UniProtKB/TrEMBL annotation:
Annotated segments matching region Disordered: 74-97
Keywords: Metal-binding
Matching CDD domains: HMA
UniProt cross-references to Gene3D superfamilies, sorted A to Z: 3.30.70.100
Classification via InterPro entries: Heavy-metal-associated_CS, HMA_dom, HMA_dom_sf
Protein name per UniProt: Copper chaperone CopZ
Ranges annotated as biased composition (Polar residues): 74-85
PROSITE patterns to which the protein is assigned, alphabetical: HMA_1, HMA_2
Amino acid sequence: MIDNEYLVSGMSCGHCAQSVTEELTALPGVEAVTVDVETGKVTVRSTEPVAESSIRAAVDEAGYTYEGFTATVRSHTMGPSTTDSPAADSPRRPSHA
Ligand SMILES: [Cu+2]
């Protein structure tokens, strides 16, 4: 299991995040996608490495700007849940206020 973090700009609300999430989740090997709208940080969890070009294309398809790869986090072989997965229990941000 690999978590890769990317930076995406142009997202402003939950709907934006949802669009990006859907496009990225459709990529082969991708199991989960976490989007932080405020920072533009997108975390892609996959069972195999995903080509950066594929990430870029998916973000583009969703209508946002791919800014770049930021980090790889491999932390899922260490046993039961640690505090490194904000996606699991952070409440969903309300969309369009
Ligand atoms: Cu939006």
